[in-house]
Write a structure and sequence with these properties.
There is one protein chain. Helices cover 50% and strands 0% of the residues. With 242 residues, it is mostly helical. It folds into 2 domains: 1-30; 35-193, no CATH class. It is globular and about 40 Å long.
Length: 242
């Protein structure tokens, strides 16, 4: 007896179509994730690795740009978030920001040369955020009206850029983050505690921890699955938050 073949072909076509949809969805979901090529080696803590991926998702540089930055950053855990923060504020390619840094310029000098106001580092702050940000906040409050160029020290800029990045990513007030930091959490640990991006930067260093954090995505934050303008205005990651 001859069996009908048409239903079999329909099933195969349906399965193929479903697989294609899943592949497309997976590609879309990974569009904002940081992809590291097989030759890249970064020896970082899990928390720092997590924060790199969070920064990548917040500012969404093209993947080749992100990989190039990570390969060239002398201290990727600190340099990567600051490069992306300044690049967004200055409407510049992040690679150009890193080039200035590699020439020996301080973060403050780079911000002054690109006319990036220090005010952006204090977005959402109308009072002293406390340590470790309070000293920089007081200096900013004292000098913000000055017509002469002034700049903060590198450690303060790194700390504040990270604070603004995690505050923007989770859409919470910087004060909520600084309060946890004052209780003993690092800003990286705060980020991990509030949910993990789908794909973290893979550990390749010899001393990288074997234990990976588990999460189910950031709370109260829409994933950046779509492409966004990589060097857009500070309206994206630097909005006023309450």
């Amino acid at each position: 007896m001859t069996h009908p073949v048409q239903p079999v072909y329909r099933i195969r076509i349906a399965l193929f179509a479903a697989a294609a949809v899943l592949l497309c969805a997976s590609a879309t979901a990974r569009a904002g994730d940081l992809v590291i090529d097989a030759g890249l080696s970064i020896d970082l803590s899990d928390d720092a690795r997590f924060f790199l991926n969070l920064s990548n998702r917040q500012y969404a540089p093209p993947q080749p740009v992100a990989i190039d930055l990570l390969q060239r950053c002398p201290q990727p855990a600190d340099d990567f978030p600051v490069v992306l923060f300044i690049a967004e504020a200055a409407h510049k390619n992040p690679a150009a920001i890193l080039d200035l840094r590699l020439k020996g310029r301080s973060w403050g000098e780079i911000m002054v040369s690109l006319r990036v106001t220090p005010d952006l580092l204090f977005t959402g702050m109308d009072r002293d955020p406390g340590p470790p940000y309070g000293r920089a906040w007081g200096y900013w409050k004292k000098n913000r009206a000055s017509k002469s160029p002034w700049r903060l020290d590198d450690p303060d800029i790194v700390a504040l850029a990270k604070l603004q990045t995690v505050s923007a990513y989770y859409r919470v007030s910087p004060y909520r983050v600084s309060a946890e930091v004052q209780r003993g959490l690092t800003v990286e640990a705060y980020a991990v505690a509030h949910g993990q991006p789908p794909v973290a930067v893979p550990a390749r260093g010899p001393n990288a921890s074997k234990t990976k954090g588990k999460g189910h995505g950031p709370k109260n934050h829409p994933q950046h699955h779509g492409q966004q303008a990589p060097y857009g205005p500070p309206g994206g990651g630097l909005k006023q938050r309450h």
